[in-house]
Amino acid sequence: MVEAVLIDLFSIPANLQNNIQGLLHNALEAVEKCSCIHAPCVYVMCCQRQGSETKGEQEFLLPVLRGFQGLKGRLDMVCAQTTAAALYTIKQRLDEKDLSIIKVILPTLRKDLMKVYIDHLFTAVYQFAFEDLQVVSDCKNLQISEPQHEGQTLPSPDVALIRREIQMYLESLPSLNGELTILRSSLIPDDIFLHGFTTRTGGISYIPTLSSCNLFSSSKRRDPQVVVKENLRRLANAAGFNPEAFHRVKVDHANAVCIMGKTEPDNYDGIVTNQKGVTLAAPGADCIPVLFADPVRKACGAAHSGWKGTLLGVSMATVNAMVSEYGCNMKDILVVLGPSVGPCCYKLPHESAKEFNKIDPKCVRLFDSASPYIDIRRATRILLERGGILPENIQDDSVTDQNQNITFCTACHPDKFYSHFRDGTNFGTQIGFISIKD
C-alpha cells in the first residue's frame, strides 16, 4: 500500500505549462479520494527560481493546495533550485516518518530522468512506482502492484550531469553534530604512515542511527552510496589521503586476506599493501577495525575482526600476509585495535562463548550464564602474541595511560561511535584507515 505520493512539477514540459494547476488539482483529487481507505503523505516538488523565495511555480500552485483541506497536515510543498536539492529534502521527510513505499506522479518526459536521481539518492529499502501526471484520476492508479526496476535509458552525458548536480548539492551541505574527529595511535609512526580511526561526527548523514559521518552503505540501510562518498571525501580532506586510492575490505566475517596488486578475492576481511599513497580501510560498528604497520619494511594492513573473524584468526592471517608478501619481520609489526564493543556490553550465546573460553577463560565473563560477556579484544591480543607479535607492539584498551586509549567501547559512547549492538539494523559504520606516505 502506498505510504507517500510524490508529485513532480519541477520542470513541466511547455505543452503542459498552461494546465499546471489543473494537473495538480486532478492528482490531489485522486489522492484525496483514497484518503478514506489510506492516508498517504503527499509531497509536491517544484522549482524555486534563483534569487527568489516565493516566485516561480510555487506561487501558482499554492491556491490549488489550499483547496484540499482533507489532506491538511499530510500535504507538503518542497521548492528548490535543483531537482537534487528538492528530492533530497523529500527523502529527509520520508525518513523522518519511516516511509518506504512511494508513488511518483510526474510528466512522462521526466520519468527516465527521475529514475536516475532516485537510483542515486535512495537505496533498495525504498520501493517506487511511477504514474503519468496527465492520466492520474482515481485510486486504482495510485496503487503499487510491483516494484519497477527498468533499465536506465538516459544518455551517459545526461547521467553524468545528474551525478555532478547531486555531488555539488551534497558538498554544499553543512556538517552535522560537530566537527569531523579522527583518533590516532601514538604507536604508529606518523612520519611514515597516515592513519586513524573515525568517529561519528562531521558528516552529512542525518538519520539518527546513521548520523553523521556514516561510512558504509548497503541495500538494507537508508544511507545511499552518494552520501557515504561525500562523507568519505570530507574525511579524506581532513586526514590528507586520496579518496580515489581508497580500498575497503569486503566483509565476510572470515579470514581471507587481499594482497593489493594481486587478484582480488570476492570477499575478504584483511587487506595489505606496500604501495605508497594507497589507503586501506576496515569498518567497525562493534567489530574491531585493526590496523597493522611495519615501519622497517614499510608495509601496512587493515582487518575487520568481529567475533567470527576473531575466532578464525583474521588478524594473524593479515600479519602472515605481510610477512610472506613483503618480507616483514614479526617483531617489527605494530598492531592497533580501534573502537569496538567491549566486554562490558557484548554478549554471545553460550555455545559461541565456549570457543572464546578455549582461547583463554579471561576472555569470557559469567561463563555459566546463557549469554556470557565476551572480550573479543583480549582474544585478538592473545592470538596475536601467540603468533609472534610482541606484546608492547599491540595497542588496545589495556594501555597503562588511559589518555592514550583509542579502543573505546562503541556501545557505551553513543555520542562518539556507531554500534550495531546498540542501534539495531539501520546502524552506521566507522572505519580504521592506514596508508604509507609518499
Features:
438 residues, alpha/beta, Rossmann fold, CNF1/YfiH-like putative cysteine hydrolases, six-stranded mixed beta sheet, five-stranded parallel beta sheet, 11 helices, 29% helix, 19% strand
Please state the structural category.
Answer: alpha/beta
The oligomerization state is single chain
Number of domains: 2
Distance between the termini: 55 Å
What's the count of strands? 18
Strand content: 15-25%
Topology as a string of helices (H) and strands (E): EHEHEHEHEHEEHEEEEEEHHEHEEHEHE
Number of helices: 11
Poorly predicted segments: none
Q: CATH topology of the largest domain, what is it called?
A: CNF1/YfiH-like putative cysteine hydrolases
Mean pLDDT metric: 92
CATH superfamily of the largest domain: CNF1/YfiH-like putative cysteine hydrolases
**How are the strands of the biggest sheet laid out side by side?**
9-10-13-12-14-17
The rounded Rg comes to 26 Å
User: Strand count, sense and closure of the main sheet?
Assistant: 6 strands, mixed
Structural summary, described in words:
There is one protein chain. The protein is of the alpha/beta class. It has 2 domains: 4-138 and 153-172, Rossmann fold; 182-436, 4-Layer Sandwich (CNF1/YfiH-like putative cysteine hydrolases). It has 11 helices and 18 strands. It has helices at 20-34, 57-66, 83-96, 111-121, 156-172, 225-239, 307-311, 314-326, 350-359, 376-387, 420-423, and strands spanning 4-8, 41-47, 75-80, 101-106, 127-132, 182-183, 193-198, 246-248, 257-259, 270-273, 279-284, 288-294, 299-305, 334-337, 364-365, 373-374, 394-395, 430-436. The chain has a 6-stranded mixed beta sheet with strand order 9-10-13-12-14-17. Strands 3-2-1-4-5 form a 5-stranded parallel beta sheet, sandwiched between helices. The protein has a 5-stranded mixed beta sheet with strand order 6-7-18-11-8, with no helix packed on it. The longest helix has 17 residues, at 156-172. The model has no long low-confidence stretch (mean pLDDT 92). One of its GO terms (molecular function) is S-methyl-5-thioadenosine phosphorylase activity. Its EC number is 2.4.2.1, 2.4.2.28, 3.5.4.4.
